Amino acid sequence: MLLGVITWHEFRRGKARRIALSSWRMILLLLPSSALVAYGQTQSSAAAGPPGANAPVVITLDDAIRLAQASEPSYAVAAAANRNAGMDKSIARSGLLPNVAYFNQGLYTEPNGAHGQVGQGGPDTPDLPKFIANNGVREYFSQGIVNETVGVGPVAAVRHADAAAAMASAEQEIARRGLVVAVTSLFFSSLAAEHKLAAAEQARQEAADFTRLTTEREQAREVAHADVVKAQLVEQQRIRDAEDAQLAAEKTRLELGVLLFPDPRTPYTLSAPAAEAPLASKQEVEQAAAKNNPELKSALASLAMNNADVQSAWGALLPNVGMNVTYGIDAPQFAANGPNGVRNLGYSASLTVNIPVWDWWASENKVKQSEIRRDVARVALSNTQRRLIAQLDEAYSEAQAAHDQLTSLDTSVAAAAESLRLTKLRYAGGEATVLEVVDAENTYVSTEDAREDGRVRYETARAELQAITGTM
């Protein structure tokens, strides 16, 4: 365009050379800009990534459970408590073993000016210390010390820590199974909401088609205008139902996304199982519940903890033995050998027996307190066993009833769809009324929703049953 504005007169006036030079300068200036633009387009294409890079993540039920376990705070607390209980168990066991310390100390005490024989050295060692508790003006310690205490208390502490670790493990399993039930319910509720949305969209389309049909028949003077008004009212209601179904689907997706992703708005697609999982027999369920129920394990561990506390309380009334072995130096010189070849290295050993005599019934009251807590734990264990029996029967009955109704719900949906199709054909042929068509549409939508609710009911009941039996 720059060259295009150059006129022939300017060329004839002798400006051709200057114009040509200016044009080449402009071209040279534009070349880097063009290169930068091309480079930016290349970088934008590279940043966009390959096609489908931002596609929604496909999530199965197992994936949802795994992701929820990594981000749910209650389960994280239970898992941390289980790890801490395992460390407490190791700490309690280390209390049964001797401990070793390396003790080093240097003392300086003001001398009193007197002379005498203290420790290693000549017969007239000068400068005795002023403090009689100290053995010399200068005194050095460098000793390895081994201590061991034998009694009922450390043994009871180990038993308590073992039971606490078992209880923490059971509580973590309870939290995990509760999380599995919650994720399963949200997973299938989200699937059901998507299916309900599809059914609502189909019902809205059916209502729109029916409105066109009534309008055409009114124009052909085959039906009254009242049929058109009724069809329009139904269509408006179907539009509102579709909007509500869309909102419900978004809510369930966000609720599930909170458990799965750092950003709950992350797009994802749920992969539904190919078919409903079968229901185990009642005998298999009872056997699994007796073996794998975490509530029962937690109650048993709680009783074991209280039994250990009773043992520990009784241990305060019994003697305990302390043993000490010390090896090293305790001398006026910080050296293995003193003056005149005296060897400073040596050892000492002690054995101490502590016998409790009188503490104003404090230990006896602690024994009674621990026995009271043990009795409460026994009652809790009995109640857990009874509640387990009742929950097992209730959960199995619920799962069995929901499973038995799945086939009936599928049959009802198929029958309702066929009824709607036939009723619309009859209406088109003038053999049915508009109310019959509307009733058939309502029946079809309600049976679709009932089928989805039935699937959610069965999967939730099966998950609760698996939480009791431990067959996750």
Low-confidence segments: 1-53
Name the helicity range.
55-70%
Helices, by number, come to 9
**Which superfamily, in CATH terms, is the homologous superfamily of the largest domain?**
Outer membrane efflux proteins (OEP)
Sheet having the most strands: 4 strands, antiparallel
| Mean of residue pLDDT values | 84
Q: How many structural domains are formed by the residues?
A: 3
Order of helices and strands: HEHHEEHHEHHEEHH
Work out the strand percent. 5-15%
**In CATH terms, what is the fold-level topology of the largest domain?**
Outer membrane efflux proteins (OEP)
Protein structure class: alpha+beta
| Cα radius of gyration in angstroms | 43 Å
Number of strands: 6
Reported CATH architecture of the largest domain: Up-down Bundle
Please list the strands of the largest sheet in the order they lie side by side.
Answer: 2-3-5-6
Question: Judging from the principal axes of the Cα atoms, what is the shape?
Answer: elongated
Instruction: Identify the CATH class of the largest domain.
Output: Mainly Alpha
Distance between the termini: 75 Å
Itemize the secondary structure elements and their pairings.
Blueprint: H1 8-48, E1 57-59, H2 61-71, H3 73-94, E2 99-108, E3 138-150, H4 152-219, H5 225-260, E4 268-270, H6 282-292, H7 294-315, E5 320-331, E6 346-354, H8 362-428, H9 434-469
Parallel strand pairs: 1-4
Antiparallel strand pairs: 2-3, 3-5, 5-6
Helix pairs in contact: 2-4, 3-4, 4-5, 4-7, 4-9, 7-8, 8-9
